[in-house]
Automatic annotation (TrEMBL):
Transmembrane segments: 27-43, 50-68, 100-122, 134-153, 173-194, 397-415, 447-466, 478-497, 528-553, 565-588
Topology within the bilayer: Multi-pass membrane protein
Protein's cellular compartments: Membrane
RCK C-terminal domain residues: 206-288, 294-380
Main location: membrane
PROSITE patterns: RCK_C
Family annotation (InterPro entries): Cit_transptr-like_dom, DASS-Related_Transporters, RCK_C, RCK_C_sf
Species the sequence originates in: Prosthecobacter algae
Pfam families attached to this UniProt entry: CitMHS (PF03600), TrkA_C (PF02080)
Protein name, entry field: SLC13 family permease
Lineage summary: Bacteria, Pseudomonadati, Verrucomicrobiota, Verrucomicrobiia, Verrucomicrobiales
Keywords: Membrane, Repeat, Transmembrane, Transmembrane helix, Transport
Length: 589
């Protein structure tokens, strides 16, 4: 009975992970509670995974990455690379992807994408090409670059720890580098020669004219007393001169249908779609103003010296899933929302009632330090260049050197990886590259709980015999075609699960079953484990990967864009995995 109970819990976990109705960390902790209450695991076994050195290692890497970002070191690297590439789009993509992949081999994918987002958009504007031509290759490069080292992505570290927990040798720092480089180079060649034909080119005409703000945002404009717009017909008004599209009209807190004879009145709040520079001009035009500014002035807030910046909401943002109204955005952040945009389309609901999604672009106004605070907390990415103090940059370089020493020491076996990276993180704190509060805020606690909990769930699968049962089903159907076919089946399953689930969750769900299947076939379980790990790190079929979400809005992409480009890239990189894994890690010894 126990195997079927564990399998049922596994299916429930997959569904809950995919729908994200409940946070993954809460699902994981709930599973552990059920496993203990049913007697499948005791308390010590349930929480043993949280004492794994992988948890310390990943937490340290999160802190180091945040310190390098906050001191401007990563920003400098991004800007340097952006300036170093130029000319033909294919050469730009090749140079950019090479640099991004190299950095992503040692840093979190999402952090690297966020770091390059602003510089790449700026580079696209200078070269007068659409950012959409560069942003998708940027996200793919950060993902594929993560396959080159153990610390290139948290999924690699999580799978390595799970393999060690099951008695297998853990993955070395550069053990997967040869195959990772082949995956990355193959992906780069595919994107440059084939994939770029499918990467969309949006707003080419406006970029060619040097327009630095081509995105059309949704904003609410109020018609002030004595405005020349009063009495004008909505669709033939001065809004057309400002290149605004009138979307909706609200009068006395009620939404009115806009007909061919609808005229504006004093106090009307008009929902318009327009470009950034025109929205900013509204603040200087007599008779109209942005609704948010009017409310701020009525509250006694001086906005004359406020900064204005475009930002992208990150997948980790606590604002995702809330509206501006329900989140009490202005009071909570100290910033006011002038306009917003989602993907390739302008929203048509009143801003306060729009449910925010990861990847949404917001045009915000407020003190510069508030932008900096929320960027440090990974709530948003500011698509502007920031200036950093020289002293902070020097401290950041010291942290970068400490990080490089940690990588070298751990790879050569001088120090355990967890201790090496923990020391580097402590150096970042000691040199004041990052505050302790900011360090804690930048650790992805949900991921750490997921890894610790799913490690214990793997123990439950082995102890109950659920992994053997599932492995028996898979091997029964696929074993007649050989161990490589069985491994391919698990790789495909992992790739499919990474679309609705996080990469680490998908890998940790499939791994125990794949390892047991390998043992049943008499094959090397470690080869299966590495194949699963690499397969989980090539999640490019859909824009659900956090790195892809970050570029989705600024690139004005559609869901189908990722399927067109990512499907071919997935097939090619999967073929590389299935071809090379048995060579580097023979299936039979």
């Amino acid at each position: 009975m126990e195997p079927y109970l564990v399998i049922g819990l596994l299916l429930a976990a997959v569904v809950l992970f995919a729908t994200e109705k409940i946070s993954v960390d809460l699902v994981t902790l709930g599973l552990l509670c059920v496993l203990v209450m049913t007697g499948i695991l005791d308390v010590r076994e349930a929480f043993a995974g949280f004492g794994n050195e992988v948890i310390v290692m990943l937490g340290s890497i999160f802190v180091i990455g945040a310190a390098l970002r906050d001191t401007g070191v990563l920003d400098s690297l991004g800007s340097l690379l952006a300036r170093a590439t130029g000319g033909h789009p294919r050469r730009v993509v090749t140079g950019m992807m090479s640099g991004v992949g190299m950095i992503s081999a040692f840093m979190n994918n999402t952090t690297v994408t966020a770091m390059f987002l602003g510089p790449v958009i700026g580079m696209a504007r200078r070269l007068k090409i659409s950012p959409s031509r560069l942003l998708m290759p940027l996200s793919f490069a950060s993902i594929l670059g993560g396959t080159c080292t153990l610390i290139g992505t948290s999924t690699n570290v999580a799978v390595s720890g799970a393999m060690k927990h099951r008695g297998l040798e853990e993955v070395g720092m550069f053990e997967i580098t040869p195959i990772g480089l082949v995956i990355f180079i193959t992906g780069l060649i595919y994107l440059v020669l084939v994939g770029m034909k499918w990467v969309p080119e949006r707003d080419r005409a406006e970029h060619a004219n040097g327009d630095a703000h081509i995105r059309e945002y949704l904003s609410e404009v109020v018609i002030l007393p004595s405005s020349p717009l009063i009495g004008q017909v909505a669709f033939q008004s001065d809004f057309s001169v400002l290149e605004f599209q009138v979307v909706k009209l609200r009068r006395h807190e009620m939404e009115l249908p806009i007909g061919p004879h609808t005229q504006f009145e004093e106090g009307d709040i008009v929902l318009v779609a327009g470009k950034v520079q025109n929205l900013i001009k509204v603040k200087k035009i007599e008779g109209i103003d942005i609704q948010e500014d009017v409310q701020l002035r009525r509250s006694g807030v001086d906005t004359s010296d406020a900064s204005v910046a475009e930002v992208v909401l990150t997948p980790r943002s606590s604002l995702v899933g809330q509206t501006l109204r329900s989140s009490n955005f202005r009071r909570r952040t100290g910033l006011s929302v002038l306009a917003l945009l989602r993907g390739d389309r302008t929203l048509n609901d009143h801003m306060a009632d729009v449910v925010l999604h990861a990847g949404d672009l917001l045009l915000l106004q407020g003190p510069y330090d508030r932008f900096q605070k929320f960027e440090q907390e990974a709530e948003m990415v500011v698509i502007t260049e920031h200036s950093y103090a020289t002293s902070a940059r020097k401290r950041g370089i010291a942290t970068l050197i400490a990080f490089a020493v940690a990588v070298t020491a751990s790879s050569l076996g001088f120090l355990p990886a967890s201790i090496a990276f923990l020391l580097a993180a402590l150096i970042a704190l000691a040199t004041r590259c990052i505050t302790l509060d900011t360090a804690y805020e930048n650790i992805d606690w949900r991921l750490l709980i997921l890894i610790g909990g799913m490690t214990a769930f793997g123990t439950a699968m082995a102890k109950s015999g659920a992994d053997a049962l599932l492995a028996g089903v898979v091997t029964h159907w696929l074993s007649p075609y050989g161990a490589l076919t069985v491994m391919a089946g698990f790789c495909v399953l992992t790739i499919l699960l990474t679309q609705p689930m996080s990469n680490a969750a998908a890998a940790l769900v499939v791994l125990p079953i794949a390892l047991q299947a390998a043992e049943k076939l008499g094959a090397d379980p470690r080869a299966f484990g590495i194949a699963i790990m690499l397969s989980a790190s090539i999640s490019v079929l859909t824009p659900f990967e956090p790195s892809c979400i970050l570029v989705y809005g600024p690139g004005k992409y559609r869901f189908s864009d990722f399927i067109k480009v990512g499907s071919g890239l997935t097939v090619i990189t999967l073929a590389v995995i299935l071809l090379l894994v048995p060579i580097f890690w023979p299936l039979y010894r």
